[in-house]
Write a structure and sequence with these properties.
662 residues; alpha/beta; Serine Threonine Protein Phosphatase 5, Tetratricopeptide repeat; 8-stranded mixed beta sheet; 4-stranded parallel beta sheet; 17 strands; 50% helix; flat
Length: 662
Amino acid sequence: MGVATTYRAASSGGMDSRQQPVTVSDSIPREPRLRRLRLPVALWLLLALLAACEPLQRPERGAAERARAEALANQQRHDDAAEAFLALAQAARGPERERYLILAARERRLAGRVGAARAILDGLPEPVAAANRLGWAQVAADVAVASGEPERALEILALAPATSKPGAAAELARIRAEALFRVGDPAGATRAYLEREVWLEDPAAIAENQAALWAAYQRFGDGITPEMAEAEDDPIVAGWLRLGYIAAARRDSQAGLNLALLGWQSRHPNHPAARVLLPRLLRDYVGIAEMPQRVALLLPLSGRQAAAGRALREGFLAAHYAAGGLEVPRPVIRVYDVEALGVLAASHQALADGAQFVVGPLLKRSVQALAGAGSSLPTLALNYLPDEQPAPAAFYQFALAPEDEAQAVAERAIELQQWRALVLAPNNAFGRRLLNSFAASYEGRGGRILAYRFYDPRATDFSATIKDLLLINESEARHARLAANLRTELGFEPRRRADIDLIFLIASPDAGKLIRPQLKFYYAGDVPTYATTAIWREGSRNNSDLNGILLPELPWLVSPSGEQARARAVLAEFWPQDAEARARLHAMGFDAWRLLPELAGGTLANGAELAGAAGRLYLAADGRIHRRLHWARISGGRLVSLAPLSEADAGANAIPAASPPD
């Protein structure tokens, strides 16, 4: 009813001359002669009831506001649409109000404001009216998925009533698929996408549904295995799961993806995806049509480096076997012992045997000899040529260069605004190489090495070197002078220098386990300490003394992809004695196999990268393949993967100095 207002009635001659207050409602028209009406009491009650139940908005106005809200939603002005639906909800009651709130939550979700959508839904009564239950389930489940609660989304979907409306049914199937992918059920998610396709009639919508499933495989398909597809009774679902394995395993390999798709097509020519999705993918992922059919592997299988040669061969063959689930044509591989034959004789024999691509050699002298002779075959050498020796055409070089790791440390430190560094390095060629590489990269980005010290790698006590580097000696000398001047004993705790942002420690596992505790002892335990992969020996035990050290590491060891994990399983089964001790060389051999179609097809160029076992691989103009490594922290005596830095991370973890020091 309207707000009560007090009016004063005019006086009449036969009544008291004083004005009497009369209270009426704004929502009822005023009648100047109310007292003259003589109506039954029941009629007065009926009039009062009608006044109280009068609509809060006129029907024609409500329809116009609904049309406006729906138009805003169709224009994808989702926040404006949400506000319009909220206004409608304020003027409505009961199930109608619930419906407007559900629509407002939907628009907030579509605007990307998941928290706001959830707050609206939380204000609904439980349970919602039966007429709104389908819409509520659709919006609430979608919000739950977006909030990282896929299990909750599946619980909500289980409460949704059955529907024969194509749009609603298709949307429920989509949300169910997204939730199932997130709970690790790719087969169930695939069936949900196929169920969604049943409700779609437009060919363009069907094509987009298949493209959405492919995109979901690339994002969430790491858990799919060839065995999962083989165990599937439905041949359509099995074909999709094989495609999902390819999508995840080859998502960063243009040529490898193209090859795998062609192999899948030959196995599933009548699959629904072969008619709709595959032509689009083959158009988008242009690559070479075939792998080199014959590959020569030139490695030292005898002599002092035989163990390294065998590990590379094992990694190469493990990748070859692991690719079986990808439908990829696999080449004939022939292995040549360059130590027994000589590198040039082995190369000539490979050419005579019909090789189309050479992988190897490994040793630097062999790489130099083969490049100097001018190999006529495309070659992926497993070491770098000297800087002064140019590479012939189609002569690529791939190495696990520690210089890449030193540069990675410099890049991360600068990202975190850690501008001032100390360096501890072994007094040998390896230590000097990495110090020079780190210095060039770090100082080239504005960083400053305040001091460095070399240590004897055969020593067990590094205290003198560490105290000198941290200026503990100067603190002790100041104390001694003060005590001498005062001629009394003073309580004293030495202080390290306070002007450092990081320590770069170049060390083997044994030296690192001795140096790290001594850094802590001399008050540098809170200083970010970086190292290279040299400090970590895979398969070793009792690594707790290395806790807290940050290092760039191979994805093979800290975050292997599905295909890499499959290859590691092959290695553990057939070569268990080397699976841990030679892990990095296994990763290098694996990547050598993965690089073949990329290099043969010319797709690893113009800044393209391949997600490899040894890092993200990219080709430089000089024919060298470099790596961007994954970051890890040693915690609890083991490697723990770190998420990539975002801009927010860099700001949150930055040292207070916001610019390079003067």
